[in-house]
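thought: fold this chain, then report.
action: predict
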Amino acid sequence: MRYERTLYPPIEPYETGMLDVGDGHVIYWERCGSPGAKPVVFLHGGPGAGCSAKQRQQFDPDLYDILLFDQRGCGRSTPLACLENNTTWDIVADMERLRELCGHRKWQVFGGSWGSTLGLAYAQTHPDRVSELILRGIFLSRQSELDWLTKFGASEFYPDGWDAFAGAIPEAERTDLMSAYHRRLTDDDAGVQEAAAAAWNRWECQTLTLQPDEAMVEECATGANSVANARIEAHYFLHSCFLEESQLLKNAERLKDIPCVIVQGRHDCCTPPAAAWALKQAWPEAELQIVADGGHLFTEPGITDGLICASDRFAGKNC
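observation:
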């Protein structure tokens, strides 16, 4: 399929800083685009991935004042890979601190994958602070979604990758791979952590794109942020992302007055479309776009097109 919209050209921040949010954590933040323009906060995935320069390009820099930040333990935030005082609700509180730092009364919330989870949690906690939501690759942190990646589901689509993921753990521990990986990712031996992180990230990253991208998979597995990503993700997954079962669906009524666009890949094997569909049923006011040839990542053409159109439209620009 052919799509018209692509990412905006690369931009650099006009301001950066470090915010001490307490509990021993200091958060990196940056602002891009035009000061005083329409405010938006971008929420990265993972949990644990950190922000990248390309993520700034999902917004027209002339129309948006864009805040990106590395969540606790991620990217340029310190201490790196720290799990203490690192929960969904800690990050929700950090977002409010950042909103106040920027001086915004309301802002648009834009997040994909784990960023969609965090965006929903924030909007349900502070609906009066959210002007719009743009969400991609919905992840609601239900047990069925956690099991999809770590027990059964994605394993049926990527049996070769699954064998390598499970095979990195001794057979006696394979009935609970999440716990087995968590033990290794919190081991005192850095070498044990690195090996577990490489196997964990390599498995997950194979599920992210419709077309194979071996270079991206290898960067996920062994890049500079690989241990932080895997450690924090396993920590969150082991605790169901600090959410009650189906909490985000049960509280969807709190979102009914917030305009929302959901962009979901039909062939997303990391966060399958069933979660986006369940959210749409609980929140009929939301606009759900299922991209027929889309996977999980925002850089896939159909996903990019849907996200850029949504961010343009909410800024008053024709799509």
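thought: worth noting. The domain at 15-141+244-314 is CATH 3.40.50.1820 (Rossmann fold).
final: tokens above.
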